[in-house]
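> agent: user asked for a holo structure of the chain below bound to S-adenosylmethionine. Plan: (1) validate sequence alphabet, (2) canonicalize SMILES, (3) run complex prediction with ligand conditioning, (4) return tokens. Step 1... ok. Step 2... ok. Step 3 dispatched.
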Amino acid sequence: MVKPKWLLPVWRMARIVKELPRNVRAMFRGQELRTTEAGRRGLLNLARTLPDGSVMVEIGSYRGESAEIFLSSGRVARIFCVDPWKRFYDLNDASAYTDMKEVELDFDRRHADDPRVVKVKGTIETFIERHGGEVIDFVYVDGCHTYQGAKNDILKARDCVRPRFAIGGHDWTWPGIGDAVRETLGEPDQVFEDTSWVKKLNTDK
Ligand SMILES: C[S@@+](CC[C@H](N)C(=O)[O-])C[C@H]1O[C@@H](n2cnc3c(N)ncnc32)[C@H](O)[C@@H]1O
């Protein structure tokens, strides 16, 4: 069902208000925002659909847990981790209310010594500016959780990064995200138990 455009800001505000108690709790207890068992399983199952030796870009890396899972799948040879690591960057998402300095330090602790990980502090635009010439197989979108933000990331991934294999992301069921995916790529090929989704771009690979 296509929702009228004016409904999206109303829906977004309602979501922010509804999520406020959880987000304020997250502000004080950021450590709780961890990947669950279902989250781990979903990401691993998605990663197993990738070709061996994939080079990927992750938009929204936070503590680096999902990057760790992608790498542990054995399918990913190199990952660009893109995140502004800025507090209150995306008010729709509980992660924005946590201590981003501590979160970024946690990311660095996990990945600073791993030559397979390239940290990109910024957005997909920063990635394109600095690494636009890289050949990328897969882009995973888990950054901004608004319709406009997700749509921007998917469109830039599709038209500027142009991955050889697929585009995917998290939060298929999040308000606005499913619409952003459908309008840019069509129905996903697969949705996983953690609400990750994937759309293959070149099926003969
Ligand atoms: C839900 S967290 C990502 C969780 C991570 N993928 C994991 O599973 O471990 C969302 C992250 O996206 C980042 N973010 C928000 N807007 C962004 C944007 N426009 N571009 C890149 N990252 C963004 C936030 O700073 C936050 O760290």
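> agent: step 4 complete. Summary for user: The beta strands are 54-59, 76-83, 117-121, 138-141, 166-169, 190-191, 197-200. The chain has a mean pLDDT of 89.
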